[in-house]
Known about the structure:
Layout: H1 5-15, H2 27-42, E1 45-47, E2 50-52, H3 55-73, H4 82-115, H5 117-141, H6 146-156, H7 160-170, H8 175-200
Helix pairs in contact: 2-3, 3-8, 4-5, 5-6, 6-7, 6-8
InterPro entries: AAE_transporter, YidE_YbjL
Subcellular location: Cell membrane
Protein name: Aspartate-alanine antiporter
Amino acid sequence: xxxxxxxxxSAAKQMGYIDRPTNQTDMIFVGLGILLGGLFGALAIHLGGxxxxxxxSGGALIAGLLFGWLRSKHPTFxxxxxxxxxxxxxxxxxxxxxxxxxxxxxxFIAGFKEVGVSLFIVGALATVIPLLAGLLMARYLFKFHPxxxxxxxxxxxxxxxxxxxxxxxxxxxxxxxGYTVTYAVGNTLLIIWGVVIxxxx
Length: 201
């Protein structure tokens, strides 16, 4: 809505709240979301000695969904400028990828030297086959939009970096709609089955 200041303010009284562009981030809103999400994700339920938890990242994701919904319903708080969102999305994601690579690098090189190229082949197959199966199911069984299908498969693999790459490629946030639920489910199952496999071994 554009126009003279007094006209906009007059119309706003009839339409709702004026959400003006700003360069200030509501850090209380952001910090509270991270805190509550982390605390929620840190909670664990023990079933038969197996701890079930969303993890702090999963909790932060759920909190982000909730706080984003609150912001859409009540735009009087929680404002975050577009440049700040860009920094959080891109710089934060790139730092996450870098840390994962640094942490996984030594063990990957050691395993590659010990086992050989078969480790790479098995890892590639274990990665590609579930993704292809998920995409085919989303496309032909559930009739999802391709953007949602890609978001679902990225979430099922709990790969935030893949979601960022998909959103950049399609220039849309639509894949995130499919990412959220499968991420929560995939993250929980990953923890459960990891513990189960360790117990079986």
